[in-house]
Amino acid sequence: MLKLYHGKTSVCSAKVRVGLAELNLPWDGTILDLGAGEQNEVWYLKLNHKGVVPTVVNGDVRVAESSVILEYLSDIEGSGALMPKDPASRAITRMYLSDCIDIHAAINTLTFATSKRQQILQKKTAEQISASIERMASPANALKRRDIIDNGTASSHVTIAFFVLTSLFQQMRHALSAGQWMQGETFGLADIALIAYVDRLDRLGLSSLWAEVPDISRWLADCRARESYKTAIEAYAGPADDDARAARADGNWDMIEDLWQDYQLGHNGSGK
């Protein structure tokens, strides 16, 4: 049986759980306490040297990186069960999967630059924060976290996140104007790859980021209506409306609204 090492609210873990649900694959799981840094424990680093989740183990096969896991799961279920059949559409799906590395980094940035940063600063001493960052397996991730904790929304990583999300929303505008899902009328890997990321932004109270692309809100609602969302995301993270309400109270959008609008004005006015 497939073994999934994952985080309860980790977006990359969530998208793999959605894939497992859509494929109706049996699996067993171990939830890591990411807040406590369990992903940096020696035993887990032997499975995933980057110290990130998720990781899938299937017998002697170990697969890391959530987008790679999704395609692997689709393949073992039978000839790319969730992939389009024609080569051009398959290539487009793989480009979305590849883009997820940058998209995840952008979501991580906005998560930690807003209310998550406030929570960390309120709950931990400077020494505890430094110790937590020093335990991170990836030096690049540690440097990024340090910069965001120190600088918040003034971090250069926020500008990078805006670039990535502007590109994503442009792609989604084009794709969703042509059909219900990211590649027409069939729900597939491209949708599974993106749902957890867009869901997180909404839970952060940042749905205004795509105010110019209403089809994204329609697509998000359609994704949330699927049983896979309910079992793979909502069952772990709780109701999205509750998170979004709390995020609005925390003022997440207020923290970045002017920065986002300034970025859009500097890049052809509207981000369209």
UniProtKB/TrEMBL annotation:
Species lineage: Bacteria, Pseudomonadati, Pseudomonadota, Alphaproteobacteria, Rhodobacterales
Pfam families per the UniProt record, alphabetical: GST_C, GST_N_2
PROSITE patterns named in the record: GST_CTER, GST_NTER
InterPro entries, alphabetized: Glutathione-S-Trfase_C-like (IPR010987), Glutathione-S-Trfase_C_sf (IPR036282), Glutathione_S-Trfase (IPR040079), Glutathione_S-Trfase_N (IPR004045), GST_C (IPR004046), Thioredoxin-like_sf (IPR036249)
Organism of origin: Shimia abyssi
Stretches assigned to the GST C-terminal domain: 86-240
Domain GST N-terminal per the UniProt entry, residue ranges: 1-81
Domain of life: Bacteria
Protein name stated in the entry: Tetrachloro-p-hydroquinone reductive dehalogenase
